[in-house]
Amino acid sequence: MESRKSRLNLPAGMESSLRLDSIPAAHFPAIPKTPSPSKTTYGDRFIPCRSSSRLQNFALAEKPSPAKEGGNDAYSRLLRAELFGHDPAPYSPGAQGSPISPNKNLFRFKTDHSGPSSPFSVTTVAAHDMAVEVSTPPKVPRKIPKTPHKVLDAPSLQDDFYLNLVDWSSQNALAVGLGTCVYLWSATTSKVTKLCDLGNRDGVSAIQWSREGSYIAIGTSLGDVQIWDGTKCKKIRSMGGHLTRTGVLAWNSCILSSGSRDKNILHHDLRVPGDFVSKLVGHRSEVCGLKWSHDDRELASGGNDNQLLIWNQRSQSPLLKLTEHTAAVKAITWSPHQHSLVASGGGTADRCIRFWNTCNGNMLNCVDTGSQVCNLAWSKNVNELVSTHGYSQNQIMVWKYPSLSKVATLTGHTLRVLYLAMSPDGQTIVTGAGDETLRFWNVFPSMKTPAPVRDTGVWSLGRTHIR
């Protein structure tokens, strides 16, 4: 490299007294460089050329140590893996695709789903400090027995979609209407008691226990409503008002509501002597579904006119008219987990369970069950509900809410499953059908622990004990 002195043409005698590093760079004139024909000229600052730089010089080359043959092999591979990740093509000095041509994924983040391959992996050392996705074992689905744990023989149980002939009291007594009679079956002792016989000219069309479980209301084929003391088997009073059969009943504290084939809903107050205190007119056909909300503020009624109507305690006309069903609405249940949420089921031409927000009348969801919906009941223990069905499957289905995924499908009845009631602990349901049987199913868990498995058995509710 030629000296700067020869290019500056300094006068003689100044070479010894003048130092190049004492002269500011700005004093040097811009003199063009003349490259040497036999030698490459470089600038005074080193800027490497990227195309010709050897990046492998900065990598952890897997070379054996000259002092210790193989001594640093394992350490180098481990350190390289932890810093740069695993390279599918390890460095080899003579191999094609060496670090002279860097991998295109260099300096790119990559998630390794294959799991840690080193005891010093980040996922094992700092899993709690980083957002590492940890797979959790799938939840084991609850097993629901496919067969009833108990069967009661119930002769003369009518095959009529519009009647409600089975109810389970909070005192653990089951009431069943068979023909002109009402029988009580104790779930504790299995004792059967004949409550009443309405005589040959009348029949039982509806049964409903009061919430305290001491009184039972009976709707008759002639349109009357009778109140009985279930513990003493004594009739308290009888109330009229309907022109024809009373097929559905619903309690609200001291108020008993009744629905009839005459299209009307009557409110009976047990504290006053009259037959009824108010009449609700809104349906154009028989009233077959009736349920008060859990807070007693709203009443849902369903009819053979395919309507679901929502009333409150003071209304004489419905607050909401929900007309999306295309068949009779008998099945109604209120959610015990969410305010103003009610579900309704349609008959053979509809087959759907629909979910409604009664605050605004919006339909929240709908599921086509594939068969006539006869009854609905919402579990108080878990956010699930059970439906019973008629044409053409005659099955019982358990649903999760709000996903509406099926938990179980239960079969066994040979005719439409027209009747449904739930035990006071919320774990067992009883279903009744025109096949003259009542079947008990362990369906829902308890509030804290799963429902116990009980012994199966068959009892008679008519042919042995009752005539």
Q: Can you describe this structure in just a few lines?
A:
By secondary structure, the chain is mainly β. The chain has helices at 4-8, 73-84, 122-125; strands at residues 150-153, 166-168, 173-178, 181-186, 192-197, 204-209, 215-220, 225-229, 234-239, 246-252, 255-260, 264-269, 278-281, 287-292, 298-303, 308-312, 320-322, 329-334, 341-346, 352-357, 362-368, 373-378, 384-389, 396-400, 406-410, 417-422, 428-433, 437-442, 458-460.
Which whole number gives the mean pLDDT? Answer: 80
Number of strands: 29
Query: What structural category characterises the helix and strand content?
Result: mainly beta
The span between the termini is: 127 Å
Q: What's the structural blueprint in terms of helices and strands?
A:
Elements: H1 4-8, H2 73-84, H3 122-125, E1 150-153, E2 166-168, E3 173-178, E4 181-186, E5 192-197, E6 204-209, E7 215-220, E8 225-229, E9 234-239, E10 246-252, E11 255-260, E12 264-269, E13 278-281, E14 287-292, E15 298-303, E16 308-312, E17 320-322, E18 329-334, E19 341-346, E20 352-357, E21 362-368, E22 373-378, E23 384-389, E24 396-400, E25 406-410, E26 417-422, E27 428-433, E28 437-442, E29 458-460
Parallel strand pairs: 1-29
Antiparallel strand pairs: 1-28, 2-3, 3-4, 4-5, 6-7, 7-8, 8-9, 10-11, 11-12, 12-13, 14-15, 15-16, 16-17, 18-19, 19-20, 20-21, 22-23, 23-24, 24-25, 26-27, 27-28
